[in-house]
Amino acid sequence: MASSMPGAVQRTGGRHALRREVGMIGLLWASVGAIIGSGWLFGAEKAVRAAGPASLISWGVGTVAIVLLALVHAELGGLFPVAGGTARYPHYAFGGFAGMSFGWFTWLQSAATAPIEVQAMIGYAQHWTWADGLLKKSNQTLTASGFVVAAALLAIFVAINFLGVKWLANTNSAATYWKVAVPVLTILVFASAEFHGANFHSHGFAPYGARGVLSAISGSGVIFALLGFEQAIQWAGESSNPRRDIPRAVIGSVLIGSVVYIMLQVVFIGSLPAATFAGGWANLDYKGISGPFAGLAALIGLGWMATILYIDAVISPAGTGLVYITSSSRISYGLSRNGYAPQTLQATDRRAVPWLGLVVAWVAGVLCFLPFPSWQRLVGFITSAVVLMYAGAPLAFGVLRRRFPDLERSYHLPAGEIISPIAFVIAGLVIYWSGWDTLWRLGASILIGYLLLGGYAAWARAKHLPGAPRMDFRAGQWLPVYLVGMGLMSWQGQFGKGATGRIPLWWDIALISGFSLVIYYWALAVALPAEEIERNFLDVEVIDAGGH
Q1: At what angle do helices 24-35 and 165-192 cross, to 10 degrees?
Q2: Can you tell me the distance from the alpha carbon of 358 to that of 347, in angstroms, rounded to the nearest whole number?
Q3: CA distance 227 to 234
Q4: How far apart are CA 59 and CA 287, in angstroms?
Q5: Residue 547 confidence (pLDDT) above 50
Q6: Residue 163 CA, distance from chain mean position
Q7: Which pLDDT band, with edges at 50, 70 and 90, does 237 fall under?
Q8: Each residue of 266-299: pLDDT tens digit?
Q9: What is the DSSP string of 509-548?
Q10: CA 477, 85, 450, 15 torsion: positive or negative?
């Protein structure tokens, strides 16, 4: 077992082939480029409105949460260097039902992130007169012309992807240097300008208490801003040395992103004139606040910096949207590999691009503009979807550590047996903090996924198509309980419009934590036996660290 799994090679040629042309820098910048997108443009302002200066605590908690999840993913990414990896780990450990479910969660968040970045681009572009009329002034939702422009921008992302992954990785790396340089320049410039230390205790350090701190983590964009480290994993099928480079790219991107975001929050709070939040942090207001950092730069006399920020407000989200369109097509490729979607999604063109997955990602992205038009509502929805996706990795990690403790790993997470259940608990808490008004929409999307993927899987099995998955309901019996339980606790909890508030604050955290631990160890107890996991693994394309 220890020798067969890492070295397996299957179906590497022909029209289904991906090319292993992405190096360490390409993987690192894919993840960093996904992390530093629209989140840095809006996250600091949204977080301080929700929590005041205590938003720094929100960023600290969010960083710890993402680091723990990233560490788990780093081991799995080095162990399983396959395209769309996060959609496939639960498939290995729990079989068809859980694999299909987490595969849908993974694709859903990836396909819906590019529209968020487009919305951010349009929001900042309101600074220029040519963009006037793309958003409604009353609620910042897309107008009819704004919808057309947004759909066209998504189409441009898709068109660029057709140039091939090597060209795309090189272009994204160049763009990411810019994307990192501008936030760092912003930190340095704002810190050297007039800095008001008194702002950190004006109206109190935590004027909205623990509820504000916790709600900022999910609903105000903190977690969303830090997400994206998994892009290196989604591109693993095209990495030239995945077992060495993926763990480095995953961990490195989280460290870079966390430091940048925390420092941005510090300088944003410290640079605000007192008059801008005289009515309280929730009522923060100044001319140009629709572009928070650029508007603030103009307000305090840094006009040249505002110009740079308005330019970056197009480049930075565009780069992130481009990466997520790429990942969406690779995830649909992975779903097809696992048998949950038609085999046509594996078809690649002469540049080894999974072209149909790109078209599907564009259609899904355009649809995302319809029910969730505002940036913050999109953020809340996508945060829940992405953390639900991340929750599958600690479970798969725990199973593989138990079933194959001696399997060679390019990165071995210290104390992984302790960190893994903690990471799963954190994922549950972030889902809960997103609020009931977000989670019921997520639940509806999950049902749609079951109809689409489940319907196809049932049809494929009825037709005895090659690769049709078995559902393995016994190994995934815990999943419906988890989804329904999280929904009920959110409905009865403290967060989001429509929540009843019957479960008191802090008691809800204890309840979610305990429930998550029960689900975690239940899942480990009923997971597939070692020989079934090995078969699931060998049924898909796997290439070793050297690409042989």
Answers
A1: 50
A2: 11
A3: 13
A4: 26
A5: no
A6: 24
A7: low
A8: 999 999 999 999 999 999 999 988 789 999 999 9
A9: HHHHHHHHHHHHHHHHHHSPPHHHHHHHHHTS----TT--
A10: negative
d(CA 432, CA 427): 9
Distance CA(344)–CA(450), nearest Å, equals 20
Interhelix angle 392-403/507-526, rounded to 10 degrees, is 40
> Quick one: pLDDT band at residue 165, thresholds 50, 70, 90?
low
Q: Which of 309, 247, 261, 353 is nearest to 31 (CA)?
A: 247
Q: Distance of CA 289 to CAs 46, 136, 283, Å? A: 11, 16, 11
Element (H, E) at 397: helix 392-403
- Encoded tokens for 179: 């994307």
Q: What is the DSSP letter of 12?
A: -
Longest dimension (CA), the chain: 70
The pLDDT of residue 175 is: 77
Whether 96 contacts 111, CB under 8 Å? no
Radius of gyration of the chain (CA): 22
Identify how many contiguous H helices and E strands the chain contains and give both numbers. Answer: 23, 0
Comparison of pLDDT for 39 and 534, the residue scoring more: 534
- For residue range 383-437, list pLDDT tens digits in order: 666 778 888 989 999 999 999 888 878 778 899 999 999 999 998 988 888 788 8
CB atoms within 10 A of CB 454: 18
Q: H or E stretch including 404?
A: none
Tokens 């995302």, residue located: 368
- Residue 318 and residue 324: Cα distance in Å, rounded? 10
The answer, yes or no, to whether residue 17 has pLDDT greater than 60, is: no
Tell me the two tokens of residue 184.
Answer: 């760092």
CA 404/CA 527 separation, integer angstroms: 13
pLDDT digits (tens, 9 = 90+) for 107-157: 887 888 888 888 878 877 777 777 778 887 776 678 889 889 999 999 998
Q: Is the dihedral of CA 66, 72, 73, 75 positive or negative?
A: positive
Going from the C-alpha of 120 to that of each of 139, 165, 228, the distances in angstroms are: 14, 25, 16
Other beta carbons within 10 angstroms of residue 184's beta carbon come to 14
User: Token digits for 393?
Assistant: 């990795």
Reference 35, options 259, 217, 211, 359; nearest CA is 259
Residue that is written with structure tokens 């912003």 in the block: 186
Q: Quick one: which of 353, 242, 268, 234 has its CA closest to 49?
A: 268
Residues across the chain = 548
Model confidence band, residue 99 (pLDDT cutoffs 50, 70, 90): confident
Place of tokens 């989604």: 234
Place of tokens 């194959």: 404
pLDDT surpasses 90 at 48: yes
Q: Rounded to 5, what percent of the chain is helix, strand, coil?
A: 70, 0, 30
Sign of dihedral through CA atoms 426, 432, 438, 439? positive
| Residue in this structure with the two tokens 């992205």, named with its chain if needed | 365
- Residue 33: pLDDT band (50, 70, 90) is confident
Whether this model's pTM surpasses 0.85: no
